[in-house]
Amino acid sequence: MRLIHFLAATATSLALVACGGDDGGVVVDASTALANPGFPVPTTTTKANSQTGGVWTETGPANWACLNTASPDQPSTQAIALSGKIDDFQTGNGVGTAAVTAFPGINLAGNSGTTTSDNAAQTRGNYTMNLAMLPSGTTRYGFKFEATSYVKTYLLNQYITPNMATQLRDMSAVSEATALALPAFIGVTRDVTKGVLAGAFRDCNGDEVSNAVATVSGTAGTPAHLLGAKTFYFSAGSTSLPVRHTVEPVLNNDGLFVILDLPPQTASAYVQVWGFVDDADLADGQMTLLSELASPVEANAIITGSFDPKRN
After folding, report:
1. 3-state secondary structure of 183
2. Residue 268: what pLDDT?
3. Strands 301-307 vs 195-201: parallel, antiparallel or unpaired
């Protein structure tokens, strides 16, 4: 299942951004908020959305019943035979001879299994790999894809059912051509010395969320934007593309975002999504931290992930 459709900014004026919502957060100075021009205060509460026949429709309030509750993840219990297809995220074509490496958690240098995708005409992009059992305290895998004419692509935060010995999962890699072309839609030139983080955000029902804002922070629990971070949201069309802030200042119906121009981080950064949970949240003017995922930032690489409601 494809988790994302990846891929001169106009700063949105605001008086302040408040963080933490009913959880008792702190107020962030306006100049700090504007350090990322893609992080304005939404004007309404978060909404859930669904897609039918290529058309996105708002279905009602987003479901936050699981927010800040215990994680349902179960510990790894065995090695798993994983298979599927490595495809080009834009075209859907299979990517042959892609080197695939699994790793535990966000340890990009770790190794929980390796393989190379098939390049034969009838099976191009197909792969099979044996995932090692995760170490204690880790419940999710990450994956790295490397291939000729492709940017190094990471996929983080993948929950693989721990008690099923054989499982299927298709995953996507981003081509060099796409990495150059898509930022051009928003007037940004790709800088290979910087990193890119991207993803889709979903609520407790697994529905895509609109009317929230995303950033990459150097500090857990607060939006301390990394220097140069610029968040952009997507068009939510039949082919969703990143658009300028004047077109879509916050998460659109497809829940997609991309954060560009990130300085490489050897220590973990934090991908965060903030928004108003309900009318009371909106009335008190304090956004709630809806999602947070620790993630490294690597130059000349695209890191994608599954962004779910924040759990304890």
Report:
1. helix
2. 78
3. parallel
Ranges under pLDDT 70 in the chain: 1-34
How far is Cα 75 from Cα 229, in angstroms, rounded to an integer? 34
What's the whole-model pTM score?
0.87
Helix (H) or strand (E) holding 275: strand 265-275
- Contact between residue 129 and residue 82 where contact means Cβ atoms under 8 Å apart: yes
Give Rg (Cα) of the chain: 19
**Percentage helix, strand, coil, to 5, in the chain?**
5, 40, 55
What does the alpha-carbon distance between residue 265 and residue 295 come to, in Å, rounded to a whole number? Answer: 9
Whether 79 contacts 131, CB under 8 Å: yes
| CATH of 80-173 given 3.40.190.10, 2.40.30.160, 3.90.226.10, 2.60.40.1120 | 2.60.40.1120
Please write down the HEC assignment for all residues of 280-294.
HHHHHCEEEEEEEEE
At residue 22, the pLDDT reads 42
| Nearest Cα to Cα of residue 212 among 274, 257, 260 | 274
Tell me where in the chain the CATH 2.60.40.1120 domain(s) lie.
Answer: 80-173
Question: Kind of pairing, strands 256-262 and 55-61?
Answer: unpaired
Place of tokens 């981080």: 265
Q: What DSSP element (H or E) covers 83?
A: strand 80-88
- Specify whether the CB–CB gap between 95 and 136 falls below 8 A: no
8 Å CB contact between 252 and 244? no
- Contacts of 275 by beta carbon, 8 Å cutoff, 6+ apart: 42, 45, 46, 209, 211, 212, 213, 251, 287, 288, 290
Note the pLDDT of residue 16.
Answer: 27
DSSP code for 23 = G
Q: For the purposes of burial, counting CB atoms within 10 Å of the CB of 57, is it exposed (0-12), middle (13-18) or buried (19 or more)?
A: exposed
Answer whether 82's CB lies under 8 Å from 123's CB.
no
Strands of the sheet with 208-210, listed across from one edge = 55-61, 47-52, 208-210
